[in-house]
Write a structure and sequence with these properties.
five-stranded mixed beta sheet, Alpha-Beta Plaits, 9 helices, single chain, alpha/beta, Oxidized Rhodanese, domain 1
Length: 313
């Protein structure tokens, strides 16, 4: 069994940052000469972070952030792991910490519900709407029982879904529960629903990650899509049978891959047999492409790698 020498951190903090460009510089300075990798976005709205690091450096980052008055009360969700899960340290300014161009007042959002109460609400037969606020490729491999699964490929598609929801239910009377991976999308979408007339809006505090850590997998089906090298992970230590099928043969699988053809890079579900047959590609044409990542039986190509990691040296 591999030793978990690393920690994966998931976090966000939605309080105004006066000078986000300076904060990017502060973060890069802290990361210098430390064994940390990340995908961190900073804006005037706040910070949205995912990162991994050797244990002592990850804990040093947590202590540094919590010691700073501008991030007072920030919370981290921690997952032990045996290696880094990002290819490099990416720390960038973004105008919006969540991919949505509309103006949103985060302070108008829904009521935060801790995992224990969330489980109780799911047990309660009272009529309510339960919405998965993630992209469709995320909920295909795992979601809460009975959840509405909007066919939204990006967050921008939720505008149309919101209008459809308003036409289907009474926004003033129907309770709406929503969840996402770590909680930040719900901060945005609950505010949108409140602004559009929904009165009883509840969001899972800390998202699916927090629920799995504290309550296990009750009411949950499948696994969790994550935006790092793991791609897919169980939400708890409980058994999690696959609920999705292979892109080629329809065999049961919960393994996602990016097509080995770097000019395609399509995300697809695949069983081990078909992955080997198609050498990591999503279709026959991609196998003959000019730029194809090398495929290895033991360790299939990792996602999100830039082309220079694979080109001849």
């Amino acid at each position: 069994m591999q030793e978990n020498r690393y920690l994966i951190l998931a976090y966000y903090y939605l309080k105004p940052i006066h000078d986000p460009h300076q904060e990017v510089k502060e973060h890069k300075l802290f990361f210098k000469d430390r064994d940390l990798t990340s995908r961190i976005y900073i804006s005037e709205q706040g910070i949205n972070g995912q990162m991994s690091g050797i244990n002592h450096d990850a804990h040093a980052y947590i202590e540094w952030m919590k010691s700073r008055p501008e991030f007072h009360g920030i919370e981290f969700k921690l997952t032990p792991y045996h290696e880094q899960v990002f290819p490099r340290a990416t720390i960038k300014y973004r105008k919006n910490v969540v991919g949505y161009s509309g103006k949103v007042d985060f302070s108008t959002g829904g009521e935060h519900v801790d995992p224990a109460r969330w489980k109780e609400m799911l047990d309660d037969p009272e009529k309510k709407i339960l919405i998965d606020v993630r992209n469709d490729y995320e909920w295909k491999i795992g979601h809460f029982e009975g959840a509405e699964l909007p066919l939204c490929g990006t967050f921008r598609d939720f505008d149309k879904y919101t209008e459809e929801l308003k036409a289907k239910v009474d926004p003033k009377k129907t309770p709406v529960m929503m969840y996402c991976t770590g909680g930040i999308r719900c901060e945005l979408y609950s505010s949108i629903l409140k602004e559009r007339g929904f009165e009883n809006v509840y969001q899972l505090d800390g998202g699916i990650i927090n629920y799995g850590m504290k309550e296990g997998a009750k009411h949950w089906l499948g696994k969790l899509f994550v935006f790092d090298d793991r791609m897919v992970t169980p939400i708890s230590e409980e058994e999690a049978p696959a609920i999705s099928t292979c892109h080629f043969c329809a065999a049961s699988t919960d393994a996602y891959y990016n097509c080995a053809n770097m000019d395609c890079n399509a995300l697809f579900l695949c069983c081990p047999e078909c992955l080997k047959e198609y050498v990591g590609c999503c279709k026959d044409e991609c196998k003959c492409a000019d730029r194809v990542r090398p495929y290895h039986d033991v360790d299939a190509h990792k996602p999100f790698r830039r082309s220079y990691n694979y080109l001849p040296k």
